[in-house]
Amino acid sequence: MQPRWRKVDNALFAAVINGGGQTRYHLIVERLPNGRGWDWTVWRPGDEPRLARHGMASSVAEAMRAAEAAAGDWDREVP
Hints:
This protein has 79 residues and is an alpha+beta fold. The protein has a 5-stranded antiparallel sheet, with helices on one face. The longest helix is centred in the C-terminal third of the chain and has 18 residues, at 60-77. The protein has one domain (6-77). The protein is 23% helix and 38% strand. The model has no long low-confidence stretch (mean pLDDT 88).
């Protein structure tokens, strides 16, 4: 899985599409308001918000890798 990231303002967005052309995951990385790190979130369309995965990282690259890893872990857990 290699999502294609797009930058919009101070955030990066990506989506993982399955073989049928459906969005499987949404990924977002945003700079924290205090400027001391990055927040990342991954969610599946149609899931309850409480099921989203999220975390914090010290760099944008680390946050992007963490979001991609979280989506990849979900892929291994869910058929």
